[in-house]
Amino acid sequence: MRRLIRNTILFTLVAVAAYLLLLCLLGDCGWVRTARTEMGNRGFLNSRVKDIRNYHNVDVLFLGSSHSYRTFDTRYYRSQGISCFNFGSSNQTPVQTYVLLRQYLDSLNPRFVVFEVHPDIMKNDGIECAVDLLINTPLTWEAAKMAWHTGNMKVINTCLYSFYNQKIRHRLEPFHEQNPFEDAEYMPGGYVEIRTKEFVRKRYSRHNLIIRPEQMDALRRCLELLKEREIPYMLVEVQDAYQLRSAYKNHQWFEKKMQALGPYRYKILPLEDTIHFCNSNHLFIPGIEMFNQDFVVDLKQALDQTEAR
């Protein structure tokens, strides 16, 4: 029996070591399909994390998914006298937002937070953003815990490879993303300008919106973190194109869920699908300009209220 136990332990140790070795070596060859090993993408999270060191004590911190970093143009808000940083990332769900807040909130030290929420993100499993975060940002214990709790092997493998890539080879800091891509350019402060229009007319089937319990729980934890530091916030939903928005059967239910968490803004502007939208759920340049010119009024009012406290 002792021999069996000893052999089992030895086999397990050798198997784990071989697994980790192959993961790292095959990752360099680009053959690994159960992990993401390539740094950088057109969401520019790698560039955003390196840029963040230039921003402290900002007036406004924008959080959320691509609806955040493709909508809230930091150049416009700076022109209005508002210092800001946009910490959105592709398909960023509240689970990943919490990891980023734990690492960077104290450094940014914002007076106010705009937290973008979108129905598609609140039902998202967060896998895409998890691997993006693990490979493109400094690996922390909070990020490793997030990876483990997903129970997804692609996320866990990416976490393991990231440890090798960052802690042993020190490849993260020297890496620089291509900027601009053919149709996307990162702007200092976190905004990404998309220059191509991809709008396609289509009919969406009517459907009910859902919210994953783990995303609602993570959103609450994010807001509790802000409350602990006495940072006021606003939840903001950026409108979709009418062809998608009209397919939502229970959007009022989603609105009530968000309103229960604190100040929430969802405003329908007179936007035309084919003019003001890049695709069904992202604004294009004319729509972005119209949205920000309208939103800045509410934002300035919120900042004034914060100052009066």
Total count of helical runs of at least 4 residues: 14
Low-confidence sequence ranges: none
The chain-level structural class is alpha/beta
Q: What is the residue-mean pLDDT, rounded to a whole number?
A: 90
* End-to-end CA span: 70 Å
Quaternary assembly: single chain
Shape: globular
Main sheet properties: 5 strands, parallel
Which strand order spans the largest sheet, edge to edge or round the barrel? 2-1-3-6-7
Q: Which series of helices and strands comes N to C?
A: HHEHHEHEHHHHEEHEHHEHEEH
Helix content: 40-55%
Radius of gyration: 21 Å
How many distinct beta strands? 9
In percent, how much strand structure appears in the residues? 5-15%
Which descriptors apply to this entry?
alpha/beta, two-stranded antiparallel ribbon, 309 residues, 14 helices, five-stranded parallel beta sheet, globular
Description of the structure:
- The chain is α/β, with parallel strands linked by helices.
- The protein is built from 14 helices and nine strands.
- The strands form three sheets. The chain has a five-stranded parallel beta sheet. A two-stranded antiparallel ribbon has the order 4-5. Strands 8-9 form a two-stranded antiparallel ribbon.
- Helix 5 packs parallel to helix 10, helix 7 packs antiparallel against helix 8 and helix 7 packs parallel to helix 9.
- The radius of gyration is 21 Å and the shape is globular.
